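Review this fold:
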Amino acid sequence: MSMKIIALSIKRTLKYNISLLVISSLIAFTGCKGKKTDEHGHAAETHAEEVDNGHEHEVGDGHDHSSDKSQEHSEGDGHNHSDEIGHEHEEGDGHDHSTDEANHEDGDGHNHEKESEHTDEISFSKKQAELAKLTTETVSPGIFYSAIKTSGQIQAPQGNEVVIAATSNGIISFTNSSITEGTAVSAGQSLVTISAKKLLEGDPAAKAKIAYETALKEYQRAEILVKDQIISTKEFEQTKLRYETAKTAYEAQSLNITATGVSVSSPISGYIKNRLVAQGEYVSVGQPIATVSQNKRLQLRAEVSERHYKMLKSINSANFKPAYDNTLYRLSDLNGKLLSYGKSSGDQTFYIPVTFEFDNIGDFIPGAFTEVYLLSSPQNDVISVPVSSITEEQGLNFVYLQLDEEGYKMQEVTLGQNNGERVQILSGLTNGDKVVVTGVYQVKLAATSSVMPEGHSH
C-alpha cells in the first residue's frame, strides 16, 4: 500500500514538472515569435516577463530571458539590440548610423555638407584685372532719370550759317581739292574761282573793265561839254548814271579778279556743311555754291512718338549718341537747354519735334543722325548700374560681381528703363554688391574658358 502511494506521488510530481516545462516553453516561444523587426532586423518590442516568479528557463532556441525591461539579445546575425533610443548597429555593410546629421563620402570623392560652397566662382587674378583695366562700382540706391528713347538729328541754328553764291557766270574751279563737307574754313578764305575766258559770251570781268573804262571817258568828256553848254544837263546826268553803274559792276569784281578768274571767299569762319556744286561745273550769278556753318551753337532735334506726348512736359534734358561715334554725350555737360517742344505733329507725321540747343565743344557734324534719350523727372532710391556692365546671353541679362580680390561671379538681373548712361535694375542686385563696370568682356572670357576641377566641393 505504501509503495503505491509513493509511486502515485512520483507520478504526480513528474506530471507537474512536465506541465511547468511545457508552459515555460510555450511562453518563451510565443514571446520570441511575437517580436516585430525593422528593416535592419532590430527588435521593436521587449520580451514579455516570465510568469513564473524569479524562474529562469533555458529553452532550445538559445535566448536568455530576464524580468528586466532592458534585455540584450545575442542573435545569430551578430546584432546587438537594446531598448535605449540611441541604438548602435554593427551590420555587414559597414555603415555607422546615428541621429546626428551625417557626412556622406560618395564614390566620386565629393564631400557633401549642409552648407555648400560656391561652384560658379570665376578666378580672375589681380594681374589680369590690371591688364584689363577692370573697375567696379558698389551698388547703392540713388537718383535715376527715366528716359524716352528715340531718334534725332544735329542741326545748325538759324543765323550761324551762310550760303555762298556765285558772283559771276563761268566754270567752277575749287582752290583746294580737300574742300568738301566738314572742312574747316576761315573768314576771307577763297573757296572757288569762276572763269569764263573760254566761253563764247566772253569773260564778264573783262567786259566789266572795258565798260567801266569807256563810261569813265564819256563822263569826263561830258563834264567839259556841260560847262560850255554844248550838251544839256539831262544828257550829262544820263552819262553820269552809265558811268556809276559801270564803276559799281567793275569794282564788285575787281577786288576778286585773279589770273585764273573771279575768286569767291567765305564771309565767316566755320565748317563746310554742304558743297552744292562739283569741280568744272557751270554756274550762273546767284547760284549757291556751298553752305558754311559757324558751329558755335548746335541744335538737337528729336522726333517723339505721339504716345509720349503727356510726358513731354517733364522733359528737361537729354543724352545722345551720334551714329558716327560710340560716345554718349550729355547736354548737361554741353551747356544745353530745352528750346521748345511741338504742340502738334508736323509734316503729316506721327512724331512731335523736341528741340535742344548746346555748345559745339565736341566733334559734332551738323546734319548727322543720332540716338536720343529724353530725360524725364528723376526717381529716388533706384538701383541702377552703368550700361557697360550689362551682358546678354540667350535673351537673359547678366552682370559680374566681385566676390573677393580674385573671385567673381555671374549674376542674372532684370532690367528696367535705360537712359543711355545707366540701366535700372528691377531684381538681381542688392545694396553693397560690387559690379564690374569696365573689363567685363575679359571676365566673361575667363568664365567661359575656366575648367571645373575634379573633386570640387559643394
The domain at 161-293 is CATH 1.10.287.470 (Helix Hairpins). The chain has five helices and 25 strands. The longest helix spans residues 2-33.
